[in-house]
């Protein structure tokens, strides 16, 4: 009987050693352990890239669109807020939903009183922004601040669901000729 117990203990150790030495399936197990964090990291990188790309596009578009106010084109054509928003939208429509663009154009009495910071957004029960935006392109020589904001959707790693991206241009309108 003692020989049977020694043999079964020895057999158990042999089976454990064989199991530990067996490398079949090790790659699949290692991949399973690494795949989820790798895919999560890849998704986070892509999402971060898109936010930075959208921010840079918005910055560029605000500079180009603001030039029309700076040179007096908006004032001479008597553009409305909706028309100016369309000008902005036509340049960003590839990445942005135009109905989500928030355009604020204000005249400042001095450079020190110019508001270039992000506004506090207010929301209604449906989660829509309820802020009222100004559209005052000013006259020749006025200091003007153009702010364009957009709620960029964040699909992962955020409890808020969106990130506000904003571009600002502050300038003094050119004198009339």
Structure report:
Helix 2 packs antiparallel against helix 4 (81-92). The chain is rod-shaped. Helices cover 46% and strands 16% of the residues. The chain has one domain. It has a three-stranded antiparallel β-sheet with strand order 1-2-3, with helices on one face. It is built from four helices and three strands, in the order ααααβββ.
Give a short overview.
With about 180 residues, this protein is α+β, with helices and mostly antiparallel strands. It is about 45% helix and about 15% strand. Strand 2 and strand 3 form a beta hairpin.
Mean model confidence by pLDDT = 87
Number of strands: 3
Number of domains: 1
- The helix/strand order is HHHHEEE
Q: What is the structural class?
A: alpha+beta
List keywords for this structure.
177 residues, alpha+beta, 3-stranded antiparallel β-sheet, 4 helices, 16% strand, rod-shaped
